[in-house]
Structure formats: structure tokens, C-alpha cells
Amino acid sequence: MRSGSSGEIGSTSATGARSEGDDATAHVGGHRSARDDSDAAQVLDARLLPAALCCWAATIVALTAGWRTGVMLAAALAVLAIGLWVLLLWAIAHRGERWRAVAVVALAAVVLGAGFAAAAAWRAHRVATHPLRAASGQSLHVVAAPTDDPKAVRSKTFGGDKQWVIRADLREFRRGDATVRAGGAVVVLATGEEWAELSPGRPVEFLARVDQPRRADLTVVALSAHGPPKVVGPLPWWQGVAGSVRADFAAAAARVLPADAAGLLPALVVGDTSALPAQVRGEFDIAGMQHLCVVSGANFTILLSVVLFAVRLLTLGPRTAAAVAAAALLMFVVVARPDPSVLRAGAMGAITVLALITGRRKQALPALCAATIALLALWPGLAVNAGFALSVVATAGLILVAPSWADWLRARGWWRAPAEIVAVSAGAFVVTAPIMIALTGRLSLIAVLANVLVAPVVAPITVIGAGGAVLSCLCSPLAGLVLRCVAPPMWWLLFVAEHAAALPGASVAVPGGVAGGLMASIAIATAIVALRSRAVRRIAAAVALGVAAVLVPVRVWHPGWPPNGWILAACDVGQGDGLALAVGPGTAVVIDVGPDPGPIRTCLDRLHISQIPLLILTHPHADHIGGLTGALQHRAVAAIAVGLHELDGLPPAIASEHAHPPPGADANCESNNPATPSGERRHADAWPSRVRDIRVVPRGARFRTGDGLDNAAERDAGVQIRTHDKTASVAEWRLSGGNRTGDGASTRADIPCRPGGYGHAPTVNRAGSTDPLVPVAGLSQVATVARNAGVPLLELSAGQALSFGAVELEVLAPNPHGPRPIRGAEADDANDRSVVVAASTPAGRILLTGDIEAPAQRALMHAGIPIQADILKLPHHGSRTTTRDFLDSVRPRVVLVSVGADNTFGHPNPAVLAELSALGATVARTDQRGDIVIVGDGRSLGMTTSR
Known about the structure:
Layout (H helix, E strand, L loop, with lengths): L33 H9 L6 H17 L1 H27 L3 H32 L10 E8 L4 E3 L9 E13 L2 E4 L3 E7 L12 E8 L7 E13 L5 H20 L2 H12 L7 H9 L10 H17 L4 H18 L4 H19 L5 H15 L7 H15 L1 H10 L4 H25 L1 E3 L2 H28 L1 H9 L2 H16 L4 E3 L3 H18 L3 H24 L8 E5 L7 E7 L2 E7 L3 H10 L4 E2 L2 E2 L5 H4 L2 H5 L3 E2 L2 E4 L8 H6 L31 H4 L3 E2 L14 H6 L14 E6 L11 E5 L25 H11 L3 E4 L3 E5 L2 E7 L22 E6 L2 E5 L5 H9 L8 E3 L10 H7 L3 E4 L12 H9 L3 E4 H4 L2 E5 L4 E5 L2
Parallel strand pairs: 5-7, 12-14, 13-15, 14-16, 16-20, 24-25, 25-26, 26-27
Antiparallel strand pairs: 1-3, 1-6, 2-3, 3-4, 3-5, 6-7, 8-9, 10-11, 10-28, 11-12, 17-18, 18-19, 18-21, 21-22, 22-23, 23-24, 28-29
């Protein structure tokens, strides 16, 4: 949770908390006695609470159940209001003060609820009868104005471009020759970098297919855009100002701050997440600090508190103070984008500051309830918005829970500041945990500690960052000087996030959805009530101490992962493949990298992999290549391999880039050894013995540059390893390759390939076009990443053999005479072009199959190649394209299924699982077991999983 102090405005501290989707802010008050707190608790004004809850619930029912249900609910509440009116009259006649108070509160809540139900039903009816909904399934020309910055989403199509989601206000649409002017909220799903450049408020025209919306939040339709947008209107002046300030601020931060800090600071201060690295966002999510990556009411609370404190120091009058605060609030809303989420944050921040100024802390809850009612009246769609729920619940928790917890800690000798920080962090976490569990199915166990550690630096970062944003528009050098002051607290913030996220068990999977959220709510409520007993607290403390005494040494100092002697790891990368084959201490051959950089990076880090002599990308689908930069990051990588002919379709510009040696390469591997992650040069002899068996070929050999083979040994052996260098004036690693003879034996020959240097993923550069922490899409981006990292690209084909000490890899596919990719459509039919590798290891034979489908499986069986294996990586995530004959031929003892939880493809297919069961194979799935590690010695196989 975010907390910050600023001198009361007398002698109080403002403490805000915000939740990920948008915002949450509240206050834990200043110094007061226990008796004062008790009195305040007794007079807490909750009269508006039933009205707020009733309005919220009525709006949810009307939006989710349909406008007809909303009308019926409004009628039912109107009838109930009549009954309550009768009760009120009876209470007045009989002078029943208590009943009169109850009747008044209930009557107000029911009347407001009836009105909100009717209003929401009317809006839902307008959406349901919108003329654009009648065009569902058709493609139309649409004019709409974005209401927020485009948000990147993962593409559901393999190898496709990055997709963007844009929320927009409809202006008009054309059906045939008729133009229909109509408003309403729409969601646009688009592909292409042109959409990333859209500015909120500027109307654009585009062709789109009309689909029904997925959420009942007053969205009229979902539009799937075809092609780029065309600007058809001017940009509103306030959006132009906001865009200019945000761009100048981001540029100033990028000039003086490290890459991660430069991406995070604009997100924290003004909500600009365009340059926020995916790795940083992932770490903040795991650490329970995701609320710091968005603009929230805490921003407004901190900044308004500073403004009002400065006004008081200048001894200005209350009217001037109010005017200055209003101007500051308006400016911040404009810069942070005046969408409903930001306006909501501003409202809650202003309410908190007003409560501080007036000193009426008992009015904080009525103010929150009033703000909730007003916001729902203006934007009914917020009723079903998860961010709004997190915002309101977190604020309520800080009003109702945090003060008493802070006083309880202070009564036991805690200083005021630590007590308030811990109470705020714990209170906000407790009340928001059920919602986060329902949304994500995960619980951060380190969230409270992480937020406590960063609480002291959040307010300084916000204030200094806001000052730097203002100065960046006036004087860039001065802005840079100011922003340098934020570097130390930003370093601490990132340090805590990184190390908290890296702790084993920092985030655990729990049952999600509505049922999971309800169970979490019941568990938390029960725990809070039970902990009011001193005996229960002592028992809980003893249990927690005992568990910590056992788990902390085991999970932190000796986590037992990976197990000693592990051979193969299947990483839980979601719906995709990511495997590591151990070939030495801290060294592994990596086969595919999953769809995102984060999971594969985390998996390889946990396996303590620092060196990758070969990284194989089986085929150019996003779920196998998207995480490439995560595998490269902080690791020494010798070469990246793809299937034969896959590089044929590279654009000429990229091919010409690879025609030059990568940075740092010279004509002698002995004097230009690859760079390790720490930056030193590593001599070949420094590699572990099992990896040093990759020998060096004498200089002067030549590479294949065209359709022919320049090296006679290569031509005789049928080896076709490609780089884009015309000559090999550098030393080369030696791999082995050969053709299989009729009796199943193979001849061997040297396969030269040039190591351009062990590289890192490209450095984050806001001004550049490549974000190393964003998923890679397509082999063109693979080539660009490899070029920037100084890692050579190779092509593999059937008949080649690669030795890594005691581990030997035999390439079984693709066949040199097999299908080739089509330029511009490389991802089409790529499954059957997958690189298939058989690995001979101390644990037995392992068959790694990529995504080959029935045709490629039959080709393998008919090629006379032994495909029997002890361990099988099930092809294509267990899809129905895996044949029974193929499984019979392999007859594995253990089958690994790399698949994402709740995937929409139906993987793995139940029939395939039934066939494996009939064969007596042990099946392990990453969606159920997490990371899976195989150990064994050939006679017996063992399995260890992360869940």
C-alpha cells in the first residue's frame, strides 16, 4: 500500500493506499489518545453506508441481469419504500427515536437504490437497443475517439503482431451509404504499431468487425479493427497538454535515470505505463505492490497535502488555499488523463484531504459513501469494475481497520510512524485480498512486508517526480537535476520489488473466481474475529513462529530446488513450451522459451542456469519464441538455433544486419571470448568440463552463404548450418553432424558455427524500437534480438548430432526436403516444421517434439529413425493431432505436457491422455504441477514439481 506523510496541515500524516486497476486512498490520523480513539469509534457516522451499498448492488443487478430485471428491482424497491414510509410514520407517532432513525436510514437507502436501479436499467436498455448492436458480425466503417491510452495485450494468434485494446467513445458509423451518428462506449481490439500512437480524444476512422461485448459494463460493442486507423479530427487542447507533459517527463526521466527506474517513474507519478518494463510489472505483481504502477487517490492525497501545506506556510487565506488546491487538482487530472478512473482517484484524494483539514475524521466514512454514490451516478459502469471495487474497499479498510490496528500497536510500545505504516499496509492488504484472489487466483505472502519497506520512499518519489514533470516542460536541464534526486528512492523501490518477488513462495496459487473470493473473505473475517482473543493470538504466534522456523531455512537458504542431479526441466510458462536440458553445472540447453519473457526467466533463474551453449527455437510460433529475451537476460548464450530454411524468409534489411559481425567479435575466439553476465571475458577452458567438449575448429573455414556448401566436409556430411557471415574469419565452435546410413549408424563431421559472443538481452531503451521485456513476435524480431545480444543464429536439420559432454542431441527433424516457410506467412503450417531432438542422457532417452502434428509424426515413423524414448515431451501441448501410432512407437515411461491452465484450446485432449494411460505412462502437466524436473539414472526415473 502506498503511504506518505506530510505535515498536517497541523500535525497529522496523510496516508494513502491504492489498488491496481485504479485507485484507493484513505487516512490514518494523527496523534491522539486511546480514549479519543474510542470516542471516535463510537460516533463513527455510518448513516450513508446502507445507501451506498444499496445503490451499488442495484446498479450491479441492473447491468448484469439485464434492463428488465433492473426495472423489476426498481419497482420492488419502490414498494419496499412505501412500507418503510409507513414504519417511519408509526415511529414518529409513537415517539420511537431508535425506530425512527432506522426507518429514515433504510428509507433513504431503498429510495436511492430504486432510483439507481431505474437509471441503470434505462442505460442498459439504451445499450441493448443501440443501432450498432444490430450490425453484429458485419464489417463497418466506424469513427470513434479513444478515451484512454492503448493497452498492449498478448496476441492469441501465433506469430502475429502485437495487439492493442483501446477504449473509445463512438461518434458515428457507416452502413452502406447511410451514416448513423450515435454515441456509446466501445472497445477496439487492433493489431499494428499504428494503433499504439493514438492519443486520447482524437477521433479516428477505421474498418472493423462488430462483435458483442464480453462484459456487461455498458459497452455497446467490441470492434475488431481491420487495418490502420485514419485520423479524422483534432486533438482536444487538454489532451495535447497532457501528451506534451507526459512525453517531456518520460524523456527527462530516460536521460538521467536507469532504464527500469525511467519506465516506472512516469507510471507511478502520472499513470504513464507505456515504457513500464514487463519484468518490473511482473515483480511488482508478485510482491503485492502493483498498486504503485498506476495513478491513484494516493497521488492526489500526497500532492494536495503538499500544496496546502505550502499555502499555509505562505499564510494565505482559506479561499486562496481552496483555489490553489482546486487548480493543482485540475492540472493533475489533465496530465494523468481525465478518464473515469483518474477522476475517481481525484475525488477520493480530495475527500481525504478535506477530512484532514477539517479535522473531522469521523466524517471520512460518510465522505467515502457520498463519493461512491456520486461516482456511480455519473458512471454506472464502475459498479462492475474491479478497480473501483478495490479502490472503495481499500479506502474503507483504511478508515475502519487501520486506525484501531495502529493504536493497538502504539499501545504496545510501537512508535507512531512504524505503527501507522504497518497498520495501513496490513489493513489494505486484508480487505483487498479476497478481491485479488477472485481476480487472479493468487495470493502474495510478501505483500505486507514489501509495502512496509517501500512506504517511506513513495511520498518523496511522488513529490519529486511531480516537480520534475512540471520542470520538464519549462527547463529540461533543471528537470534532469531534480529527477536525479529521485534515483536513490527509486533504486530502493525496485530493489525491494525484485528481491521480494524472487523469494520462494512469495506468491502462491489459491482457488480463484467468485468461490475463491468468498472463501477468502470468510477465512479473513474469521481470523480477525478469532485474533481478538489473547489466547488465540498467542497460539497463532507460536504456530507462525514454528512454521517460519521450518520453512524459512528450507525455502530461502536451502530451497531444495532444483534437486541434485536433475536432467530435464519443463518450465511452467503458461500455454507454450519452455524446457531446459542440463549439460553441466549451471549450464543447460534450452528448448523453446514460452510466450512471455517473465516465466522462462524466472524458471531458469530458479534452476540457477547462467550458461546456455545452445538455445533451440523449434518453430516460429509465439508460444515458443515469445519469451526469448527472458531466457537471454543475465545469461551467457552461445548460439540460437532454428529449423532449416526458417531464416530464408528474413527481410533483406535484417539479413544484411546479420552479414556483419556482431558487436565485440573479432578474428580470434581465443582473444575475444564471450562476455559473461558480469561483463568479464570467459576463456573456453573456464567452461565446465562437460561443456568444453564443444571443440574449436581451425580458423579459415567458410560458412554456407548460398544454396551451395562452401565446405567440402559439410557437403559430404549433408550438414547445413547457416550464419549470415560470408566468411568465417573467426574461430568456430565445433558441433557434430552427419547423415544416417542404412543400418541406422551415422557418419559424423564438423559443423562450424560462429559464436558472436555471449550476450544479454538488449538494454531497455525508451527511445528505441525494441523492448527486451516484451514478448518477441516472429523470426524477424528473433533475429533482431540475437543481433543486439551478439548471439549467432543457426539452422538445424535431420541427421545432425550435437555433443555436450555426457549429453548428446540428435536432430530428427525437419528433413532437408520437407516443407519450407512461405515469406510473409512464416507462421502458417509451422507446427510440422518443428525441430525434433532426441537427447541421450544419464536418465535415458528423451524425445523433444515441438508441436509436430500427425503428418510430421508419420514422417518420423516412416523415416527409419528410432523414436522410442523413456521421456516424451508430448507434441503440441497434447492436442488431438497426436496419433495413437506415434505414441505406440515412442512408448514413453514419463510424458511431460507443457500447457497453460484454463486454456481455450482444450489442451491436453482427453483422448490423448486416455491413450497414454493405457500405455502405462506417467503424465505430468505444467498447468497442474508447475515447474517439473526429472531426475534419474536410467534404471529409475524420479520427478519433482514446484507445486
